[in-house]
Amino acid sequence: MEMVGLSPEQEKAVRCTSSPVIVAAGAGSGKTRTLTAKIAYLVKECGYSPQRILAITFTNKAADEMKSRLRAMTGLDEEAFPWVRTFHSACFRILKQECHRVGLERPISVRSDSQQTTILKGVLLELNVDKKYLQPAKWLISMAKNSGDPYAFMESKKMSVPGIRGIYDRYNEILRSQNAVDFDDILLLVKEIMQKWPDVRRHYQELFDYILVDEFQDSNRLQNDIMELLVRNGNLTVVGDDYQSIYTFRGAEPRFFLTFPESFPGCSIVKLEQNYRSTSTIVSASNALIAHNRMKMEKRCYSLKEGPPILAKELFDERDEAEWIAHKCREYFSGHGIPWHDMAVLYRTRFCSKAFEEAFRKLRIPYRIVGARGFYESKEIQDINAYLVSAVNPRDDLAFERIINVPRRGVGAGTLKKINSFRSPGTSLQDACWLALQSGTITGKAAAELTQLKEHLSVIAGLSPKEAISFVMDKVGYESYLQEYARDREDFINRLENVELLTYVASKSSGIEEFLEECALIREEQDEDQDGKEGVKLMTFHAAKGLEFRIVFVAGVEEGLIPHWRSLFDEDSLQENIKGVEEERRLMYVAMTRAIERLHITWALSRQGRFCKPSRFLWEIPEEFIILERIEQKGRGCYDHHHARR
Ligand SMILES: Nc1ncnc2c1ncn2[C@@H]1O[C@H](COP(=O)(O)OP(=O)(O)OP(=O)(O)O)[C@@H](O)[C@H]1O
Ligand SMILES: [Mg+2]
Fold first, then answer.
1. Whose CA is closest to atom 29 on ligand 1?
2. For residue 292, which of 531, 599, 563 has the smallest C-alpha distance?
């Protein structure tokens, strides 16, 4: 096979099949491309069966992309590569085959986060553990499972939840009795099966003629264990970049990447130094940034492409920032003929997307929110809006259906049946509910709770939108509900931030109806945009991993956002959390290195009405790579654009 479009180093990584290979290289150096080329090479040159190649990607989307490239390279369609998957999806496939060994049968149910919470709540009640331990217990169970050795993990840590082992056992027992697993079990059970049944392990070792792992720096302990169980001698290639390890908060351990040569003595280490993605300005600037991290592998990284400096732009507030970016996008589109989908706006938290949605809508620029669901589609926003809708429009059955048992009011199938028996044409679900309540057919907890819901809704109808939201959070108990519902603390805080943002939007509307209309409009437009493929992409830094765009805007580059305030302090020691800041710096590195041609960095002086200052990371990029445009600040002397740094 002719190695078209591969450098000699990349080609070396592709051709080496006799010993394990680790490709350690910076962003945009062609790691994913090399990995994909290697799969094609194994199939076309070495006669490997595509069905016997296990290739692990970080996301499902990346797996799809890899398969479509493989199709172009080998002529084989997507189904020919059944094992190009994420870790979870590959393991679930194995688990389905082997589930009878651990007392499960097909089809296995995978419990959602909220179902997990429900089960765990029952366990705490049963074992007489205070329910304040619900969330900590949930995190500990997940961490224990991902450590690969749950009991050892629970022994070794000073556990903040009393009787965690008992809780852990009972929780798993209930899952199994329901023929169900949680997300973490998918990996853990596969590991346990392969440890306990050597013949199963051998079967899969023999099944996979070759194993490849992309984004290896973000594998956790358990994933690493599974990989080691599956690998035979030498049939392994991993690629990664320790500069881009951004998931340690979820248990990823870049040290497996760093110590790969010790775990696999005799492996070939391939370093790629040329960045084929970005201009030399972007590469040098991001290298200079990451050089501030102490914990890293030294790598050289250069680009041969010339390019303009990075434009660093200060704006007044988040709205100005969004509109400035929107205008810029229009300029690139109209003036330079750059298609919308070649542009991306990246931000640290989903919380930031709202201002962009508004600005892009206002300036009629098509956009798509990538990865995370859009702000208005998130559960918490929809739930809260459904309360407001139910209060002002009792005929909206969908809204009422959404909240009737959220937070839980003990309204089960039985109660719903009773309510529905009061329905007739012209009687809404809500009316039927109140009728059923009046008639006395609903009893017990549900009756009391629904009576209270009725009162709550009539109170909400008389409040301002802002007051209404805080009423739902506090009096209706939605905040506590959200806390239980959230996957983990990060998730909970993200959702709270969404609610905070909604409150901010609401504070500008005069009445509930006006406010709801505004929300509905935004949602409509967005749905249209989601259908057509064309649009500027909006996404978080995390979601941008592995992707590239001709034009990139890294927005909200402010202290407190990036680095995020949550990572700044170590909660135990109350000291500056250096590891946390280093992870944030890597995140910034990931964001900057997505750009192919032009990179913009923006920040606002005020966000959500609070004053902000530019991120420390901005000052870590050498001046020579940047054009800095700051706002002249009256009363503080005139700022010289070029010498306004700190
Ligand atoms: N030898 C090469 N010649 C020309 N272009 C290349 C070469 N290698 C890679 N590229 C191109 O460079 C870009 C970056 O490649 P790729 O996405 O594989 O890098 P990566 O190392 O996986 O980046 P990241 O760390 O961001 O995941 C892609 O557009 C790819 O097609
Ligand atoms: Mg990649």
1. 277
2. 563
Task: For residue range 183-213, list pLDDT tens digits in order.
Answer: 899 999 999 999 999 999 999 999 999 999 9
Predicted ipTM beyond 0.95: yes
pLDDT tens for each residue of 314-328: 999 999 999 999 999
pLDDT of residue 113: 67
Q: Which of 9, 17, 31, 279 is catalytic?
A: 31
Q: What would the two tokens of residue 575 be?
A: 């000291």
Tell me the percentage of the chain whose pLDDT exceeds 70. 91
pLDDT (0 to 100) of residue 398: 76
Q: How many helices (H) and strands (E) does the chain have?
A: 28, 16
Residue 277 Cβ contacting ligand 1 at under 6 Å: yes
In which band, very low, low, confident or very high, does the pLDDT at 114 lie, cut at 50, 70 and 90?
low
Q: Is 248 a catalytic residue?
A: no
For the chain, domains (ranges, CATH) are 8-93+197-274 (3.40.50.300), 95-188 (1.10.10), 282-366+534-629 (3.40.50.300), 377-520 (1.10.486.10)
Question: Which residues have C-beta under 5 Å from ligand 2, the single-atom ion?
Answer: 31-32, 546
Task: Give 644's pLDDT tier (boundaries 50, 70, 90).
Answer: very low
Structure tokens at 95: 């688990």
17 counts as catalytic: no
**Burial (Cβ within 10 Å: 0-12, 13-18, ≥19) of residue 444:** exposed
For residue range 214-241, list pLDDT tens digits in order: 999 999 999 999 999 999 988 999 999 9
Please list, in sequence order, all residues whose beta carbon lies within 8 angstroms of the beta carbon of residue 558, skipping any fewer than 6 positions away: 603, 604, 607, 612, 613, 614, 615
Are residues 622 and 596 in contact, defined by beta-carbon separation less than 8 angstroms? no
Annotated catalytic residue 214:
yes
- Catalytic position from the list 594, 598, 607, 630: 594
Indicate which residue of 214, 318, 380, 583 is catalytic.
Answer: 214
DSSP states of 239-285 as a string? EE-GGG---GGGTB-THHHHTHHHHSTT-EEEEE-B-SSS-HHHHHH
pLDDT digits (tens, 9 = 90+) for 50-88: 999 999 998 877 888 999 999 999 999 888 999 999 898
pLDDT attached to residue 433: 96
Asked if residue 418 belongs to a known ligand binding site, the reply is no
> Which single residue is written with the structure tokens 């973490």?
184
Contacts of 301 (CB under 8 A, 6+ apart): 25, 26, 29, 273, 274, 275, 283, 287
Q: What's the 237 CA to ligand 2 centre distance in angstroms?
A: 14
Q: Is any ligand 1 atom within 6 A of the Cβ of residue 546?
A: yes
182 lines ligand 1 (CB under 6 A): no
Q: What is the CA radius of gyration of the chain?
A: 27
Q: Has 410 been labeled as part of a binding site?
A: no
Is the shortest distance between the CB of 9 and ligand 1 below 6 Å? no
Peptide bond into 563 cis (omega under 30): yes
Q: Is 412 annotated as a binding residue?
A: no
Helices assigned H by DSSP within 393-488: 397-403, 413-420, 429-439, 444-461, 465-474, 478-485
Residue 503 is among the residues annotated as catalytic for this protein: no
Q: How many CB atoms lie within 10 A of CB 576?
A: 10
Verify whether residue 584 is a known catalytic residue: no
Give me the pLDDT at residue 254, please.
82
